[in-house]
Amino acid sequence: MGCPFSFEETMHIIIDGYNLIRQSDSLRRVERLSLEAGRYELIRRVAAYRRSRGHRATVVFDGWMTGPAHEERHRRDGVHIVYSGRGETADEVIRRMARAERGSEFIVVSSDREVAAGAMKAGGVAISSPEFERRMGEGETAGMPRGDEIYEEEEDEDLAPRPGTAKKGAARKRSKRERQARRSLRKL
Question: How large is the average pLDDT for residues 138-164?
């Protein structure tokens, strides 16, 4: 049985941990039991998603107020876990990681506008926490291609003439950045 993904095509998904937990009804319920339970459940879900899709995944949590004096890094079930050091927020860590990823394919998961803007400025793609959670749920059925993964040509589907419509001018081709973002999001 072949591997459902190619390691050459993997991208790095950087997740704003507490942002995702607090944007998710189900993860918020788990977090009410304890902060640790919420983190553990998020890591469990991301690990399952990572195994099905083959992407590198890093979850970043705030530790800036009561956390460790220095940034801490761990790994569980193939997921990299980063706790920001005291005095540095998870948002700052994510923006720094995005800058370090410049030139490679990466997606930042956060509903925070500044974090998303930092990711895009560094050449990555940003996706909201609720949207990523939805796609993670779809990832549980991975192995079967989604409709948007079957044909690469569908990327510019809005450029094809529609029956009964007269062409009224030059088609608007998506910018290189928009095409790259669509390709990255299609891999999720």
Answer: 44
Total residues found in the chain within this entry: 188
At a CB cut-off of 8 Å and minimum separation 6, what does 41 contact? 27, 30, 31
Rounded mean pLDDT of 131-139?
Answer: 86
Contact indicator for 101, 122 with CB cutoff of 8 Å: yes
Distance (Å, whole) CA 95 – CA 114: 9
Q: CA-CA distance, 102 to 168, in Å (whole number)? A: 39
SS (H, E, C) the chain: CCCCCCHHHCCEEEEEHHHHHHHCHHHHHHHHHCHHHHHHHHHHHHHHHHHHHCCEEEEEECCCCCCCCCCEEEEECCEEEEECCCCCCHHHHHHHHHHHCCCCCEEEECCCHHHHHHHHHCCCEEECHHHHHHHHHHHCCCCCCCHHHHCHHHHHHHHCCCCCCCCCCCCCCCCHHHHHHHHHHHHC
Q: Which domains does the chain have, with CATH numbers?
A: 10-187 (3.40.50)
CB contact set of 176 (below 8 Å; sequence gap of 6+)? none
Phi, psi dihedrals of residue 52, rounded to the nearest 5°: -75, -30
- How many CA atoms, within 13 angstroms, populate the side-chain half-sphere of residue 148? 12
Residue 117 is predicted with a pLDDT of 94
| pTM beyond 0.85, yes or no | no
